[in-house]
Design goal:
The chain is mostly helical. The protein is built from five helices and three strands, in the order ααααβββα. Bound molecules: zinc ion (ZN).
Amino acid sequence: MPSPWSVEKQEQLRELAKDQSLSNGHIADLLGMTRNAVAGKLYRWKIFRSRPVDPNKPKKPRKPKNFFAELGVCKTPGLPVDPTLLPPTEPAREYAVSLMDLRHKHCRYPVEDNMFCGSKRVRGAYCDYHAERCYQPPRPPRYV
Ligand SMILES: [Zn+2]
């Protein structure tokens, strides 16, 4: 099958590719080829063209970055954050209790030698922070 790219078409393509205002689709229309054929030929010749830019086109406004939105805590930028949705903070070590002082209400996460967290138990045997670290949500069942 003969190549659809005749020598004349290739010369025309080289000339048209120099004009940065023409898109590959526009060049393809002028040559009677497809946009992909033009793009492929230019790629094989290692002629890389920048995308035509319309100076009159208004720029798209950028979204402000929101740290809490990235965390999934607050979807709307600028709104106050619900503190109950924030991840729990690590309890202070000053609440640490020894094994002998450990009571039912205390978190049982070991923090140092023979010392336990000692914060208020919230979920299972742990405080919020340590429960978050120790308990993983159940995985969905895998069907083979
Ligand atoms: Zn704890």
